[in-house]
Write a structure and sequence with these properties.
- With about 400 residues, the protein is mainly beta.
- The protein contains 3 helices and 27 strands.
- The strands form 9 sheets. It has a 5-stranded mixed β-sheet with strand order 4-12-11-6-9, with no helix packed on it. Strands 16-15-18-19 form a 4-stranded antiparallel β-sheet, with no helix packed on it.
Length: about 400
């Protein structure tokens, strides 16, 4: 932009020099001894600030480049030029636009006559040129209207005034997790339910909902959110905080018969990702006849004094991770022959136990759970059975076989 400024003669002065700024900043003075001129021509570059001098964009895009999702409702892209009347040529195939002296768009360039339609669920790069300029301007758009995968394997486990929530994330462009919570009989109706407590989280796989009321049922909806701001469908679970609940779970990890002994098995229970209450202590429900034993006589006919570091308490309810009561133990700290619910719902696998059907120690315990050869064996129970005997004594496996562990909250 060129600006000409003229001044009138003033007595005894040959000229007046006028310094002009178009930025809102004080104009810069010329070097000393600069030669004045009666007519001062100022050639100015527009600026983006007092210290960042540079030409403004000749091409502008609306909306600006970025990532957009369903809620942004971006249907087209407007291209404009600061050069009045300039022909605009653009491309959407990532090639550089061009035009001739006519001016006319050349090559794969498209003559801009109307907003560019947005292509959903793609990475869209728009390049444009004003034919009176030699600069090409590029804007890249990620147009994502596909809902992300919802969180998988959601578990809500009630503890003492808390609910422990855990899940797995499966979406490749996950940006966060949103949880909606209501106290029963309230049930969250969706992301904008004014009666529900909304909890927005980052890319995490667990959350502890604290300061809750024991005995109250809490209903949860959990959503995934992707980078474009799209939300998944909801996944539901509920839990009731209670100070007296004890859980029994099956490890996610599989182990051969060399567990590092009973102590090694306990350590695995306390480090496994499936443990329902992160702060609780767990022990493995298995025996070796020395370090850990349930009974020395059939069904502990001599009472609980037969226990050695046994993991089940007398007359205690134990719950699976779905919140269902597995069963109540008897006065000897043993489950009855038939369980109310399976230890792990929807499971068809086995866990090492080393138990006879009468709760005494079987000779097959992989040499005290230190052996992983195929010449030794260990007894195992089956998760999906409600027959108490089959749950804890079902099959013998070679010690190089890999199966999970039963773990009991202490």
């Amino acid at each position: 932009m060129k600006l000409q400024v003229k001044s009138n003669f003033i007595s005894r002065l040959s000229c007046v020099i006028v310094f002009v700024s178009l930025t809102g900043c004080l104009p810069e003075l010329p070097a000393p001894n600069s030669k004045p001129s009666l007519v001062v021509s100022l050639v100015c570059d527009l600026t983006d600030g007092c210290s960042n001098v540079g030409k403004p964009p000749i091409i502008t895009f609306s909306p600006p480049a970025g990532t957009y999702g369903t809620s942004d409702n971006v249907t087209d892209i407007t291209i404009s030029s600061l050069i009045s009347g300039a022909k605009i040529c653009y491309t959407i195939d990532n090639t550089d636009p061009s035009c001739d002296s006519t001016p006319a768009c050349t090559g794969s360039s498209i003559d801009y006559t109307a907003p560019v339609a947005v292509v959903s669920n793609t990475l869209m790069t728009v390049k444009a040129i004003a034919c009176s300029s030699d600069s090409i301007y590029t804007a890249t758009y990620t147009i994502d209207t596909i809902a992300p995968n919802y969180p998988q394997n959601l578990l809500a486990i009630g503890g003492d005034t808390v609910v422990y929530l855990s899940w797995s994330n499966t979406d490749p462009d996950l940006a966060g997790i949103t949880i909606l919570r209501c106290v029963d009989p309230c049930f969250p109706s969706g992301l904008n339910d004014p009666l529900a407590n909304r909890i927005d989280l980052g890319v995490v796989t667990s959350y502890t909902d604290a300061s809750l009321t024991n005995g109250a049922k809490y209903n949860y909806l959990i959503y995934s959110k992707d980078i474009a701001g799209n939300y998944s469908s909801a996944y539901y679970d509920d839990a009731t905080p209670n100070s007296g609940l004890l859980y029994m779970y099956v490890t996610n990890s599989l182990y051969d018969g060399n567990l590092g002994g009973v102590a090694g098995a306990d350590a695995k229970c306390n480090s496994d990702s499936a443990k329902p209450i992160p702060t609780a202590t767990y022990k493995a429900l298995l025996v070796d006849g020395g370090t850990r034993a349930a009974c020395t006589t059939a069904n502990c006919s001599g009472g609980p004094s037969e226990h050695t570091d046994w993991v089940l308490k007398p007359t205690q309810n134990y719950y699976n991770v779905a919140g269902d009561v597995i069963e109540t133990t008897n006065v000897n700290g043993l489950f009855p022959n038939n369980l109310l619910n399976t230890i792990k719902p929807s499971s068809f696998n086995y866990s090492w136990t080393g138990l006879f059907i009468d709760w005494t120690t079987h000779s097959s315990h992989c040499n005290g759970w230190t052996d992983n050869t195929n010449s030794s064996q260990g007894l195992a129970g089956k998760h999906d059975m409600i027959n108490g005997n089959g749950s804890f004594n079902n099959s013998a496996f070679n010690c190089d076989f890999t199966i999970p562990l039963y773990c009991v909250q202490q």
